[in-house]
Amino acid sequence: MQDVTHLLQSHRSIRTFKDIPIEQSIVEELICSGQAAATSSFIQACTVIQVSKGAKREKIAELAGNQNYVKKAPVFLVFCADMHRHQLACEMHKVPMKSGYTEQLLTASIDCALFAQNVVIAAEALGLGICYIGGIRNDIAAVSSLLDLPDLAFPVFGLCLGYPDQNPEVKPRLPLSLTLKQNSYSQHKTLNEADKDDIAALEAYDQQIREYYKSRTSAQKEMSWTEQISGMLQKEARPHMMDFLQGKGFMKR
């Protein structure tokens, strides 16, 4: 048990990989581990596309914000929320599929996240490093077209896999008092009282993050967590997503 919790709590994003290939049998074993994750109502709504090195991978790296590690990682996977085969299941039984529900978007996306996290844990247990790539949603329509995705399927995120060629520090996470609540969000205080407690915890965490950024071995910077988050939330968050998802048959009701 201690080995498992240590593995989980030692996670870092790895962006520099050794030039060592990963056997395809290992990739397939990782995907089987992903398939074993919990899945809502047994819908199994995740499809994984392995993209080889070459022009297609390089284009995805460009679309994801020119992230060099997308090009160079020994293995690159794209996790897709996929309700297309469910449409095929309905056609096999000659019944219409009631699609377009926001709930279907949620369950398919959650299935992808659970599937991918199983892959990540299995990979890290084998000594591999990983980096999630949400940047593929910067131009999700172009990535979807590159991967020939049908309606009712869309790319949720990518994943770089490889043997680490760096050893970054583990980022401190939020304190448990902020992330573990008892019985209610405000824990039987008024929301105003609870918010004051949470702000005090955030201030202490901000100092911890400042010290982490100052002392880490790469890309030192002067910033707290709340400064980082408040800055990020002043920007638009991929406003093209709603139109794209609706065009793919999701979020219509």
Per CATH, the superfamily of the largest domain is NADH Oxidase
Total tally of structural domains: 2
The pLDDT mean sits at 97
Low-confidence stretches: none
Q: What is the CATH class name of the largest domain?
A: Alpha Beta
The main β sheet shows up as: 4 strands, antiparallel
CATH topology of the largest domain: NADH Oxidase
**Inertia-based shape:** globular
Distance between the termini: 44 Å
How many strand elements? 4
What Rg, in angstroms, do the CA atoms define? 20 Å
Strand order of the largest sheet: 1-2-4-3
Helix/strand-derived category reads: alpha+beta
Sheet-strand content, in percent, reads 5-15%
What oligomerization state is this entry in?
single chain
Q: Key terms for this structure?
A:
11% strand; 253 residues; globular; alpha+beta; 2 domains; NADH Oxidase
Quick overview:
Belongs to the flavin oxidoreductase frp family. With 253 residues, the protein is α+β, with helices and mostly antiparallel strands.
Structure, explained:
- The model has no long low-confidence stretch (mean pLDDT 97).
- The protein folds into two domains: 2-168 and 235-247, 3-Layer(aba) Sandwich (NADH Oxidase), CATH 3.40.109; 176-216, no CATH class.
- The protein has eleven helices and four strands, in the order H-H-E-H-H-E-H-H-E-H-E-H-H-H-H.
- The longest helix has 25 residues, at 191-215.
- The chain has helices spanning 2-9, 24-35, 55-63, 68-72, 84-92, 102-125, 140-146, 176-179, 191-215, 225-232, 241-247; strands spanning 46-50, 75-82, 129-133, 153-162.
- The protein is globular and about 60 Å long.
- It has a four-stranded antiparallel beta sheet, sandwiched between helices.
- It has 253 residues and is an alpha+beta fold.
- The protein starts with a helix and ends in a 6-residue tail after the last helix.
